[in-house]
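Quick one, tokens below:
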């Protein structure tokens, strides 16, 4: 089960510092969305607001950026940043957009968030409701069909498949993989919400970290504490230490390569039903 109560101030601060992997993906998503000035834009799962603020700066005085996130510590950081007057950040979840009128938003985006949303049908219904006809949704999310090919899974599984972890851990229990989608499932979700698919593609993404410790800090902060929740508490610290060493063993030229496969998708609310 996804736990939203594990986040801390330190995890939120680490995320703000270490989230270039998501930020770079987010910037590529924005290129696909090509958001026009004066648009009304909703950033669902805005985290600490890095991407939302970039969008707000491009919207002009008549545009509007609303960022929502369920984690108060992340919203606190987003609100503490210097922001243009057209930006607002508040606590909220993708499944409940009741604070927005029907057909009031031009673009909704979810950068590295969809795999966290437990009730995807409900969230997409809400998104379809608030989008104007012709409005678009864009998202990035880890490709579930390729989850095992991602560096974090290869390395973490290598440790968790050893004794004593393999006696008590099911490596399929990463909460974000459980709630993730394949590209096909994502298309089915869009179609179910009557959203017209414009593009869906899977891209290999790569980032370099300075150490195993930095990668594990990144994983813990981007999963707001859920990364090793499927490991019993009495074994978690040992597993964490071994995982850091395994990542460090990949070091070449002072860096550890971290790759993953990300789905980039854009869909549109049709002009007529
Ligand atoms: C990996 S972070 C991505 C943050 C930001 N979008 C970015 O690109 O850096 C995932 C975010 O999804 C948020 N989240 C989790 N469940 C959510 C939900 N049901 N609705 C909206 N956001 C959610 C988390 O609080 C977290 O901030």
């Amino acid at each position: 089960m996804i736990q939203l109560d594990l986040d801390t101030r330190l995890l939120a601060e680490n995320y703000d510092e270490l989230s270039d992997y998501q930020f770079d993906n987010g910037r590529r998503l924005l290129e696909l969305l090509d958001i026009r000035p004066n648009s009304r834009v909703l950033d669902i799962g805005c985290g600490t607001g890095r991407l939302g603020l970039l969008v707000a700066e491009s919207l002009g005085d008549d545009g509007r950026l609303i960022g929502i996130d369920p984690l108060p510590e992340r919203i606190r950081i987003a609100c503490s940043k210097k922001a243009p007057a057209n930006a607002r950040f508040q606590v909220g979840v993708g499944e409940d957009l009741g604070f927005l009128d029907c057909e009031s938003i031009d673009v909704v985006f979810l950068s590295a968030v969809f795999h966290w949303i437990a009730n995807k049908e409900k969230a997409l219904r809400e998104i379809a409701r608030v989008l104007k006809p012709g409005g678009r949704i864009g998202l990035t999310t880890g490709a579930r069909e390729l989850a095992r090919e991602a560096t974090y899974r290869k390395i973490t599984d290598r440790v968790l498949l050893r004794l004593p972890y393999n006696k008590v851990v099911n490596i399929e229990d990463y909460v974000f993989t459980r709630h993730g989608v394949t590209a096909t499932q994502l298309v089915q979700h869009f179609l179910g919400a009557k959203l017209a698919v414009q593009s869906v593609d899977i891209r290999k993404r790569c980032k370099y970290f300075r150490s195993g410790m930095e990668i594990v800090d990144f994983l813990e902060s981007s999963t707001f504490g859920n990364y090793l929740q499927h490991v019993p508490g009495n074994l978690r610290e040992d597993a964490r230490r071994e995982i850091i060493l395994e990542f460090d063993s990949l070091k070449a030229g002072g860096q550890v390569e971290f790759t993953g496969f990300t789905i980039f998708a854009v869909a549109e609310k049709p002009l007529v039903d």
